[in-house]
Amino acid sequence: MTAKNALQDIRRNLETLVGEKILLRANGGRRKTVERTGVLEETYPSVFVVKLDQAESSFKRVSYSYADVLTETVELLVLREDEQIRVGSAE
User: Fold this and answer.
1) Which of 52, 70, 79, 81 could make a disulfide contact with 38, Cβ separation 3.0–4.6 Å?
2) What are the pLDDT digits (tens) for 14-56?
3) CB burial class (10 A; 0-12, 13-18, 19+) of residue 27?
4) pTM score
């Protein structure tokens, strides 16, 4: 049951950050890490959606599950003026 509580904690944390600019680092497979910036657009019961900056990416939006954050397949950093805040299971 602790994994379920951790997923709920991650979801609650992300709900408070909707509209914030974030840096997203995701496992791209074959030892490749994909790094993109965008805005946390919306949270759903099982996934969250990030609207990507168009200058950097051909995709408009990506979605990941909260389990991706828990297992550190996806790393999220909130970008504020002079600080970066890590969002994840360690909180």
Assistant:
1) 52
2) 999 999 999 999 988 888 888 999 999 999 999 999 999 887 6
3) middle
4) 0.84
- Among candidate residues 61, 78, 63, 64, the one with its CA nearest the CA of residue 23: 78
Find out whether 61 and 52 touch, Cβ atoms under 8 Å: yes
SS3 84: strand
Structure confidence at residue 57 as a pLDDT band (50, 70, 90): low
What b/e string do you get for 58-85 counting C-beta neighbours within 10 Å, with b at 16 or more? eeeebebbbbbbbeeebbbbbeeeeeee
CA distance 59 to 24: 14
